[in-house]
User: Fold this.
Amino acid sequence: MKDIWQNTLSVIKNHINLQILNTWFKPIKQLGANETSIELEVPNRFFLEWLKDNYNNLILSSLQEATRREYSIVWRIGKDKGSISIFKGNLPIIDKRQSLPVVNIVAEKIVKEAGLSQKYTFNNFVVGSNNEFAHAACFAVANHLSSKYNPLFLYSGAGLGKTHLLQAIGNMVIHNNPSARAYYYTSERFRNEFISSVRHEKMTDFKNKLRNASILLIDDVQFWTGKEGTQEEFFHTFNTLYESHRQIVLSSDRFPKDITGLDERLRSRLAWGLIADIQPPPTEVKIAILKKKAEEHGIILSEDVVEYLASISSSNIRELEGYLIRVGAVSSLSGKEINISMVKDTLKNIIVDKGHKILTIEDVQKVVANFFNINVSDLRSKRRPNNIAMPRQIAMYMAREYTKASFPAIGESFGGKDHSTVIYAHKKLKENMNNNPDLKQTVESLKNRLVK
Assistant:
């Protein structure tokens, strides 16, 4: 049983890149195990919180795959004697060295049943010129359900705050009225529950739950492209809620008319109410976000480090926070002071030398789409026409090679594809490049455009 965690790591490494593996998984130590649980140690509370927010499901599923059984995990923080357990997907954070606050179990239960995370609130959302209209619209909806902003449709690029605002709405609705029936879904979870309800003959329960909601929030509806059954079910749910003056809030990475593979009846309904976009944050907003996130995570940054991080980062807020967390983790684990030299060294593998630009999947998609004279939405859709197949394969390959994104994250950005599809595309293109000098030259040319 002493090799359980090492076997689990062998599974995990197939789903993430080497950098993430070394930073977030190699420091985890197995202290012990029995027939029902495994005891793991992490360096500090901050480290455990990051695992909880980003890799909880991956750890649990990989552990089950490696052992062919369901274990609970007992987490220990550093040399602390206190411990916490997770069972079937829950990863609470408790530090036994501190006295625990009284927790409103009822409120937590309501929020969990709504599909929400309590960490997303309006109070910790940084408002700037790029998002103030979307923020104001969301705040208005949260305080006045069934408003004239129905449906409210948010759109923006990845990582700019759509999910935060949707969940903040749900949390405020429940805070204002604990009896409100608020439900937050990712498009994938909505589809999975719909399919499960059909298979297990529980469609009546599924319909009754959603069609009696006080507010329904759906994130990333662009991934319903080509999912005719899901679209049909949501179409009828939308009609019922709208006619009953119940609030609907939706998000996507593009304007409704630009979502390919969407039923025209549904597409028109998405634009019935208020549409609000979120633009990439200017430098001053990125600085404000960094300061707020650093405060939340207990990371002390000097002004010059904050400005440097803001200057080299992309517009993706999740990635910006990821860089901050990485710097904080390295400092915590190594004892190094956080200064510009340390930040450069810590992020050197994800910063392209030319211009110190940190690349994102979105950067890759734009360059590839422009080169092949196609739309970025074509790369992100589930359609498979011949003129899209090769550019998409190249884009997936480059996303893996030149960004820090994992295979699952890349798949999600290309129409919600499974990580195995991305692994295959990466491997296949690598093989083809070895046998095709022209293809290799094309990819090299795209790389040069990418890092300009």
About this structure: The chain has four domains: 4-86, 112-277, 283-356, 361-450. The longest helix spans residues 45-67.
